[in-house]
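Weekly structure sync, notes
Attendees: PL, DS, HV (note-taker this week)

Item 1: Membrane protein
DS walked through the input record. Source organism listed as Intrasporangium oryzae NRRL B-24470. Sequence as pasted into the shared doc:
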Amino acid sequence: MTGLDTGEAPDPVPGVRADGDGPDGRMHDIAPSLRKDPPQIPEDAMDVRIHFDRTSLWRAGWILVVVVALAAFGRWVLDDAGTVIFTLVMSLLASIAMEPAVSRLGRSMRRGLATGIVMLGVLLFSIVFLISFGRLLGEQLATFAKSIPQLIADLTAWANERFGLKLDYTTLVETFGVTSSTIANAAQGLAGGLIGVIGAIVSTAGSLLTFSFFTFYFSADGPRLRRWVARLVPPRRQQVFVVAWDLAVAKTGGYISARLVLATICGSLAAVFMLIIGMDYWLALGIWTGLVAQFVPTIGTYIAIALPVVIGLIGDEPWQGLAVLAFALVYQQVENVTLEPRISAEAVDMHPAVSFGAVMFGAALFGVAGAFVAVPMAALMLALFEIYSNKYELLPHIAEPQPGEARWREDGDDPDGPGGAPREPVRRARRMTIPRPTGRRRHTPA
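Item 1 (cont.): predicted structure, written out as tokens:
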């Protein structure tokens, strides 16, 4: 018999009740003496006290002082040496833009000689252009500046007549700030023609010499500079540095050189066409068309052609505006199909919205120079993110393209689509073959 039946024997385990034990022999309760009540927190312990370490406090204060001092020093450097820094940055970008031509010439001659030949070619082209068209360009710009009020008046009258508007010429002139004194000053500055251009060049001779000096050495000693900077990076990070350097050269150099070539072709053909049809300001409008159409992404083509079309429509012969519009439409198709794929096949390939946003952001921060280099810099950052980020397989219902969706080609895409059905034309971007860092793998769902 057990101690439970007689009441004399103690429990087998102190503090454990055996009543209700079933066939499985489990115990069902714990004696009150073995239960632990939650600890009671004294009332005086409810107050929270924070003790500051004087060492940490002094360290934080000194860090704040150093940060403020560095910010003040950086602002002082930018204010007093901003021009020099800007010249260095533009020289570096110019050397990167010359890199494709210098690399090709460097295969058969010394790199310094190749750099000198490229820079001499650019200088000779600039001199020939200024001698041939400098005075004409200055006269056209001055005449165009003087005719701005009349152009606004003609445009206002044309809009009121065609669309039944009630625009006031005086209000428009005051809104855009096109006063007689402003126009006179602008025309006086532009009327000098070639003499004015030469005077401006002479006045900035120091900056041009500095720019040329640094551009030459950045290009001629590019490989040496790359090795010197790589020595400052730990070995495990040198691969990342090499990838970033090569991408910067490929993206920036390819973009700027391709845009310059396309701008030259576009501007030259537009100027020749306007000259043939007898349009005023043909040289200035041709240069405007080439530069704006190529260096302003997405909407640059429309902005570039809008100005000559409007000038032609409100002129004495409105058919000239329609002719320029027809030329722009035909040329744009020819460029998209034949010229641009061959010239800029290895240059920047980015979504149009990203390109336009990068230009607006760069222009807001650094003006025209920022807008000029914003697209290749954005492409560089996106390319680095593409290389050093992990990508995952998409779920089938997410990967399926939506009806009518414009699709960009990605790595691993089947060019013929599911079932061999041809897809809509997609942009085929040539990408640099760059090894991914070791130890990084793409994850796929199990």
